[in-house]
Amino acid sequence: MSMPLNIDWLQILLHLFNFVILAGGLTLLLYVPVTRFMAGRQGRFEQREQDLARREATLADKERQYAELCRQAEDKQRAQDEAAEAQRRALLEASEAEARQAAEGILAQARADARREREQALSNIREEVTELALLIAQGILEREISAEENAALIDACLSDWSRQT
Known about the structure:
By secondary structure, this protein is mainly α. The protein has one domain. 92% of the residues lie in helices and 0% in strands. It contains two helices and no strands. The chain has helices spanning 9-142, 147-164. Helix 1 (9-142) runs antiparallel to helix 2 (147-164). The longest helix has 134 residues, at 9-142. The radius of gyration is 63 Å and the shape is rod-shaped. The model has no long low-confidence stretch (mean pLDDT 87).
């Protein structure tokens, strides 16, 4: 039985069998390992992307926490600065009040000292004037001095007194 176009079915079946063996062998030797390799590689890349996404999320969370901590630290520093400024003002006001009181005390003491010195000076002047008057009266009584000599004696006593003060 001859086939048209000289086709031998046995040769076709052998070629077909050879092709199936070649396709199966190539599938087992090349396609399956390459697809496993590619699937594993794709899995690793997906795993890396997931890890990267988790790291980015963690990093973003840590950045938010850091920003919050920085804001809290700034708020705390601002509060401490305000408290220190208020304390500085209170100390300054207290020291100013204390200085005013001390100044008023010193001024009152100086006024009292000035009054005492003035009263002492007036008392001394009165005593000296009294002594001068007694000397003049004694001089007048001891001798009869003329008016001109009396005036000269008073002038001398007054000049002595002005030199002493």
